[in-house]
Design goal:
The structure holds 2 protein chains of 2 kinds. Chain A is mainly alpha-helical. Chain A contains 9 helices and 2 strands. Chain B is α+β, with helices and mostly antiparallel strands. Chain B has a domain of about 130 residues. In chain B, the strands form 2 sheets. Chain B has a 5-stranded antiparallel β-sheet with strand order 1-2-3-4-5, with helices on both faces. In chain B, strands 6-7 form a two-stranded parallel ribbon. Classes of the chains: A mainly alpha, B alpha+beta. The interface between A and B is medium-sized, with 20 and 18 residues.
């Protein structure tokens, strides 16, 4: 992260990212956060955030897929026939998702079982497809990687926040270690069940938007 | 505008490249995935046989323990997993795999019997897609524990178990069902009775 920001500052105004690296990063992770502002990728954000560890792995998966697919779509952007560009995007995204899923199954078996179908469902995650279609098709590869990192990070951080509070309040634990002692804290089971996910996500989105403030009105 | 031939060619090349990447990833990870699946199956068998395990065991150790303590016997179509402790400080047991269709998808698991081949020692389900909260409750310890100590025939020696209405289990072969999961319970009962019948027939 720090390296990227530094690189963008040093190579401005015309560097690898054409001076737009920092802006792209800020846009994806903050100003146009895919989860909190665009409200995309809600399904997985509700389903896998009952534990912090699950949230982090899911976030890592999305960063990997977003970066990979953005890079490849961007590299091929001048050669892809317009009519089949979406099919090509889905094929590329699916390839990265399945590769990640295979590695998860091989080296992180327990996690793979806990995440179940949700890793595979990244293929249909609007964030990945949206970034490929809206950004990578129009921008050079390195900038597209930055965009992938930014959006993946924007998703992963929100997931981690939700996962942190759901696991903490729902089980009194963080990463499986007891934090809130069972002697005085009764775990609120609701938080690890589906309704808790909706409450947590709603509150996080509300807080995020309050901190960020309203969208400046554009004068036409 | 690029021609149709170019579009077709592009799709073909992209398809082949993606397929190659996937093949590479799959064949690279296959041995690890198989080892994981094996370790999990072994763990299921060891658990249902109630073999005492050290608190922290790696998957390699599990496979070692399994090879050491459990004997696979193939009789006809059924494989019996026989646990015979050496020295005989614990009771031996026999596990059999069962499978069948549940309400939404396949249900698979292991049933373990005591050495007398009549008393149930334990049951596990390692694959199921039943309704969460209803049929999905078959995997809970509470439901699985209610099988322990039951027999696979009633007091008149009629073979078969009965999963009955919750709270109405009285006979030695009756097990309390789950509220709201009658269909799942019926299906589990049917697949268990099928495997029980095959064990009894094989014994005669």
């Amino acid at each position: 992260m720090a390296d990227k920001q530094l690189a963008c500052m040093t190579c401005e105004p015309k560097g690898l990212c054409g001076g737009r690296g920092l802006l792209t990063l800020k846009d994806g992770a903050w100003a146009n956060n895919p989860l909190a502002i665009q409200i995309l990728g809600i399904c997985s954000a509700l389903a896998v955030t009952n534990r912090l560890e699950n949230s982090l792995v899911m976030g890592a998966a999305l960063i990997f897929v977003c970066v990979g697919s953005n890079l490849l779509v961007s590299l091929l952007r001048k050669h892809t026939p317009h009519r089949i560009r979406m099919i090509a995007e889905v094929a590329i995204i699916a390839t990265f998702v399945i590769v990640f899923d295979q590695f998860l199954k091989a080296f992180y078996w327990d996690m793979s079982k806990q995440l179940g179908p949700y890793v595979g469902l990244i293929i249909t995650n609007c964030i990945v497809m949206g970034r490929a279609e809206a950004f990578a098709l129009q921008n050079p590869p390195i900038l597209s990687i930055v965009d992938g990192v930014a959006n993946g990070l924007g998703y992963a951080v929100i997931l981690a926040i939700i996962g942190f509070f759901r696991e903490l309040l729902g089980t009194g634990e963080i990463f499986g270690y007891e934090v809130l002692s069972g002697q005085w804290y009764t775990p609120n089971q609701l938080m690890i069940l589906a309704p808790g996910a909706f409450f947590a996500l709603g509150i996080v989105i509300a807080v995020f938007n309050t901190i960020k403030g309203p969208e400046p009105q554009e004068n036409k | 505008m690029k021609g149709s031939a170019y579009t077709l060619g592009y799709a073909a090349v992209l398809g082949v490249v993606c397929a190659l990447l996937l093949t590479g990833a799959a064949s690279f990870t296959a041995p690890y995935q198989e080892a994981n699946a094996k370790a999990e199956e072994v763990l299921n068998i060891l658990l249902v046989l109630n073999v005492s395990l050290p608190a922290e065991t790696s998957s390699e150790e599990l496979v070692e323990i399994y090879k050491e303590k459990v004997l696979e016997q193939k009789i006809g179509d059924i494989v019996k997993y026989v646990y015979s402790p050496q020295p005989p400080n614990e009771d031996g047991a026999i596990a059999i795999r069962f499978a069948g269709s549940g309400l939404w998808g396949p249900i698979k698991g292991f049933l373990a019997l005591e050495q007398d081949m009549k008393t149930i020692r334990g049951i596990t389900f390692y694959e199921q897609e039943e309704t969460p909260g209803l049929g999905g409750e078959i995997v809970t310890e509470g439901f699985r524990k209610s099988f322990v100590g039951k027999t696979i025939h009633d007091k008149d020696d009629n073979v078969g178990i009965v999963i009955c209405k919750p709270g109405s289990a009285k006979q030695q072969n009756e097990i309390d069902g789950i509220t709201g999961a009658t269909m799942t319970c019926d299906k589990v009962q049917a697949m268990l009775n099928e495997v029980i019948k095959s064990i009894v027939e094989e014994k005669q």
